[in-house]
Amino acid sequence: MTRYLRLIRIFTGATLAAQLEYRANFVGAVLASLGEVGVALLGIAVLFGQPGTTAVGGWSFHEALLVVGLFTLTEGFISVFIQPNLSKIAEAVRTGSMDFTLLKPIDAQFGVSTRNMNVLRVTDLLIGLGLTVYAASHLTVTLAGVLGAAALYASALVIVYCIWLVLSTTAFWFVKTQNVTELFNGVFGAARFPVTAFPLPIRAFLTFVVPVAFITTVPAQALTGELTPALALASPLVAAVFFVGARLFWLKAVGSYTSASS
Amino acid sequence: MTATWRKVRTLFATQFAEMTEFRAEIVIWMLSGTLSLVMMLVWMAQAGNAPGGQIGGYSSAEFATYFLSTWLISQLMVVWVAWELDLDIRQGTLSPKLLRPLDPLWMWYASHLAERVVRFPALLGLVALFAWLAGARFTTNPTAYLAALGLAFLGFCARFLWEYTIGLLAFWTESSTSFQEVVWLVYAALGGMFAPLAFYPEWVQRVAVWTPFPYMLGLPAQLLAGKATLGDAGRGALVLTLWLVVFWALRLAVWRRGLRKYGAVGA
Questions:
Q1: How far is A46 from chain B (nearest CA, A)?
Q2: How high is the pLDDT of residue A67?
Q3: Which ranges does the record mark as transmembrane (chain A) (predicted)?
Q4: Mutation test of the interface with chain B: which of A50, A68, A177, choosing the one with the most B Cβ atoms within 10 A?
Q5: A39 touching chain B per CB within 8 A
Q6: So what's the pLDDT on residue A260?
Q7: Residue B113, Cβ neighbours under 10 Å: how many?
Q8: Burial of A12 (0-12, 13-18, 19+ CB in 10 A)
Q9: Shortest Cα distance from B174 to chain A (angstroms)?
Q10: Is 70 exceeded by the pLDDT of residue B62?
């Protein structure tokens, strides 16, 4: 365990050193972050800007803003930690450099998941966190709510990671996977709004088929104290099932890997 | 004349052949541009819950029509040339393209047009499916479709040119594609991807009419929904044409300066 922690520290140091060399890229990253949060904010701003509109799907403005904050935070998490690593799987399989990862005396899934980091998109994390705190400061929040939300959001991150891992792992069979993750991004875009803002059949789709609801809506509900116990239990359960499933899928993929040359 | 015609035909034929290879990807790209669809669902639910079943004079079905139309039009306006330029300039693969007796702009332009031909049938199928699911109804006036297509074409040309200009910034900066994200946001917002333009605050509307965005996205969508007149379309076409001239001049100026810089470093 300590070995893995030490490795994470070494990986982080190396990736930081490599990225801080290109300081001009920071401007670009900030612009991109602003663009993304802008889309989410404009979406709800226009909705609430209509005369007579005080709620969207039963959520007040600040409650909906909480969802936007968590959405931005998750986008940041994806672009800082998940995407820079997992998007490289496809290329590693194609060029055969996956061999090196598999030969190392550490768990290969750990290796492909932690090696890189896109430090520049930390701005997403900061904006997301800022929005969440700002929105929460306008609502009555209890300590239990905060703790519950934190726990549920941790489950949410596990779910996001697992979906990405499974999608990227398909690279062992299909060479191109970037498109599949694009498709997930498209569906994930719905997480900008609380799921109750959608018509009923879509809500079911976003809860049971692609569990987008668990990523932003459920933690936000925990924070506002409107969470039903069933959902509170479902979220970690879904995360656990996804984690085991993704792990098995990864092992099966690695098992069928025959290197690029053979 | 025949020489030019031959160039055009060859360009289009090769680019079309390339694009048909990507047909599976093209469908996936289409489905990943979901912002209008997400907004459609949210507004439909809002209208369904509102007293009287409508918001700002739009019923649930009218929202479906508007946003599906925006989705259709925005799909015709997808442009990725900035990414290609960014890559080509950074990796130096622009150089062989400069040797051809033709501005590289036309190659990319043809490739985008060819992609539209591949995209269109699948697009119509998806729109028909979504329209049936969401209960959208489009206008029955054939001239409205022609006008909408014409505006979409002008809009596409405008978008192509401004994206091209942004892509050319790769001569100077490494983050040219990020500028694109911010410009896309302005285009989506003022174009009416979040809501019909009439739903925006009044000062935003007053600014928007001077930009090309409402005429390339919202106006064709309103035409398809039967909520705009041909007179509006004519005015929109005029504004778009003026903007086209501006973007063309801008892109030419940036291209010339950029090439000088590229030659100084790369050759």
A1: 6
A2: 94
A3: 26-49, 61-82, 125-147, 153-175, 196-218, 230-250
A4: A50
A5: yes
A6: 64
A7: 17
A8: middle
A9: 6
A10: yes
A166: closest CA among A79, A75, A253, A258?
A253
Inform me whether the C-beta atom of residue A256 falls under 8 Å from chain B C-beta atoms: no
Domain boundaries, chain A: 2-256
* A25–B43 C-beta distance less than 8 A: no
What's the gap between Cα B207 and its chain centre?
20
Minimal Cβ distance to A186: which of B25, B31, B41: B31
Q: Is A243 a residue whose pLDDT tops 80? A: yes
Rounded CA separation A186/B25 (Å):
14
Hey, where are the domains in chain B?
2-264
Amino acid B264: pLDDT: 66
Residues of A in contact with B173 (CB under 8 A): 24, 27-28
Amino acid sitting at position A250: W
The answer to whether A54 contacts chain B (CB < 8 Å) is no
pLDDT, tens only, A77-117: 999 999 888 888 888 888 888 888 888 888 888 888 888 88
Q: Are B265 and B176 a contacting pair, CB within 8 Å?
A: no
Is the reported ipTM for this assembly greater than 0.90?
Answer: no
pTM of the full structure:
0.90
Rounded-to-integer distance, Cα A71 and Cα A37, Å: 9
Confidence bin at B1 (pLDDT 50/70/90): low
Interface of A with B in 189-248 (CB under 8 A): 189-190, 192-193, 197-199, 202
Does residue B39 contact residue B193 with C-beta atoms inside 8 Å?
yes
Looking at residues B88-110, what average pLDDT do you find? 89
Distance from CA of A43 to the nearest CA of B (A): 6
CA-based nearest residue in chain B for residue A203: B41
